[in-house]
Structure formats: C-alpha cells, structure tokens
Design a protein that fits this description.
- The chain has one domain.
- Helices cover about 20% and strands about 50% of the residues.
- The chain is built from 2 helices and 9 strands, in the order E-E-E-E-E-E-H-E-E-E-H.
- Strands 1, 2, 3, 4, 5, 6, 7 and 8 form an 8-stranded mixed sheet that branches.
- Strand 5 and strand 6 form a beta hairpin.
- The N and C termini lie far apart (about 65 Å).
- InterPro entries: Peptidase_S78_dom, Prohead_protease.
- GO terms for molecular function: peptidase activity.
- This is HK97 family phage prohead protease.
- One of its GO terms (biological process) is proteolysis.
Length: about 170
C-alpha cells in the first residue's frame, strides 16, 4: 500500500464528526506526485479512518468520500464513545496538533513526471488517515464537531443564569 501524506483542511466536531479535503487536485505533493480527477471515483465506502496509516490503530470510519472541483472531500466519525485512541486523536485535532490527512492506496495506473514524481490516473483507495504532517500541503481537516464544547457552553449558560437569579 502506498501512502501519500499532505497537510489538508480537516475539522472535528465535539460529536467526533470529521470533514476534510483528503487530496487537493491541481498541485503536486512534496515528492512530486499528482493524482488526477476521477481517480477516486471507485472508492468503496465505508473507508477505515486510521491514525498515521497504522493498520492496528483504527479510530473511526469515513462515511463519505466524493470528488469535487477542489479534490477528494471526506466526511466521517471518530469513534470517541467506543475507542480511547479516537478520543485522544479528537483532542489533538481540536487543539490543532493534528491537522493533516493522508490517503493510503494501491496505484493502478500512473506515468512518471519529468523532474520526479508521478501522475496517477487510477488507484484503489484503501484508507484515509489523520496525520500530524501531511505530504500534500493542501490536504487538511476542515471541521470537527464537539459535543464536549456544547455541553461546556450549556453549563456556563446555566451557571450564569443561576447567578442572575441570585
């Protein structure tokens, strides 16, 4: 399995929902690889969500993976209620310590690019990982929902209301 790391837009909510741009089209990663539009269309869902491409460290599931004009957009959930490591990674994403995404795949068709790297036109997508530093500077978490934040906000509102009541 090949792994291409790149810093992407990813975001996590308090409920563990993660969205991100897993691969941006139109620019090469740090080793010169380009993946062409259409290459991800055969992705089979759900896809494993791993941390750092560690096959022994599944932390969630990607329920959506679709191409748009910017690249491969992904959406899924960290299993924060069931997997301790997912809770840890969620905290790292929320803090900004983990902000990259990386795709793990098998190349089916590619050509070598002048100056290094490849242009990949067909692949089998196996997984998408959350990573500290990605190979592609454009791949990142865009949102991360947080129930913990919502609960903390509700508690703060309740405390303020209690103080106002006297």
């Amino acid at each position: 399995m090949e792994r291409l790391f790149f810093e992407t837009k990813i975001a996590a909510t308090d409920t563990g929902e993660i969205t991100g741009l897993a691969w941006p089209f139109g620019s090469a990663d740090r080793v010169g690889d380009l993946i062409e539009p259409g290459s991800f269309k055969s992705a089979t869902l759900p896809l494993p969500m791993l941390f750092g491409h560690d096959l022994n460290d599944p932390i969630g599931v990607w329920s959506s993976a679709s191409e748009d004009s910017t690249g491969l957009q992904v959406k899924g959930n960290l299993l924060i209620n069931d997997v301790a490591r997912a809770r840890e990674v969620h905290a790292l994403v929320k803090s900004g310590a983990v902000r990259g995404l990386s795709v793990g795949f098998v190349t089916k068709k590619s050509v070598t690019r002048k100056g290094g790297g490849r242009t990949i036109s067909a692949l089998d997508l196996l997984e998408v990982s959350l990573v500290v530093v990605g190979m592609h500077p454009g791949a990142r978490v865009t949102s991360a929902k947080s129930a913990i934040h919502a609960i903390a906000m509700a508690e703060a509102i309740n405390r303020a209301a209690e103080r106002l009541r006297g």
